[in-house]
Amino acid sequence: MKGKKTVALFCIILFVSSALSARKVFDIGLQVVTLYDVDNGIADLGFFPGMSEGSNWIFGFGLETRLSILHTSLLASWVNGADNLMNLEYSVLLDIPIVNDVVYLSLGGGLSTQIDLPQVDGETIRYNNQSGDLSFVEIVEDSPIHLKAGIDYLLGPATISLFYLRETSGKIGDSIGEIFTSSGVNKGGLALTLSLF
Fold first, then answer.
1. d(Cα 78, Cα 83) in Å, to the nearest integer?
2. What is the pLDDT of residue 42?
3. Cβ count within 10 A of residue 105
4. Of 33, 21, 107, 18, nearest to 63 (Cα)?
5. Helix or strand or coil: residue 139?
6. Which residue(s) pair with 127 in the sheet?
7. How far apart are CA 36 and CA 50, in angstroms?
8. What is the DSSP letter of 122?
């Protein structure tokens, strides 16, 4: 009985928040991203000086799903200077309306996983520079936590997003202090998301 009440309360909150935010209850979109990626640059030179260098910008692609004010994001991008390395960032965010059906603030976080793709026959995919066969749980536990904040601007079926992603020193199970401590990997991005329906 308690479980049914919890589910009913969750559904009510989702539908009420959808009505207040004036958006569709469910949405799926494909995303193209230009990403400013300077590993450890924030600790050495600051975040902004490297923006004029074209080599610090990379392209990525992603998939976004949204249920009411909650949305998930999966972003894939290549690592600068390494053809075989790919970063995956999967996030869960809360959409807060600033101007209903026009501008939204997205706040949340998630996990970052680096994939080392095979370059020669016989090699296997490696995750987070770990050798050997890893289970899904081990990959998740070894992935650092990131924090993400952004502004979304809605233009019909398209959404333009400006976001900041800060990778932390923490992993699942670590202390709050470690989760809010920057690892020095900070990224900014501009994204275009097209709704599929």
1. 7
2. 47
3. 14
4. 33
5. helix
6. 115, 130
7. 9
8. T
> For position 2, what pLDDT does the model report?
64
Amino acid symbol at 196: L
Phi, psi (deg, nearest 5) at residue 70: -105, 135
CA distance 144 to 14: 29
Tokens of 88: 């995956």
Give me the residue label for tokens 């799903």: 65
Q: Are strands 82-99 and 182-195 parallel, antiparallel or unpaired?
A: unpaired
Q: What pTM was computed for the model?
A: 0.78
Token pair in block for residue 120: 């020669």
Please tell me the distance from the alpha carbon of residue 81 to that of residue 188, in angstroms, as a whole number.
Answer: 18
| Pair 104, 154: CB distance under 8 Å | yes
Read out DSSP for 13-69?
HHHHHHHHHTS-SEEEEEEEEEEEEEETHHHHT-SSGGGG-GGGEEEEEEEEEEETT
- Joined together, the tokens standing for residue 112 give 């970052």
> pLDDT under 70 in the chain at which residues?
1-5, 7-23, 38-50, 52, 81-82, 120, 122-123, 131-132
Instruction: Render pLDDT for 72-94 as a digit per residue (tens, 0 to 9).
Output: 999 998 877 667 788 899 999 99
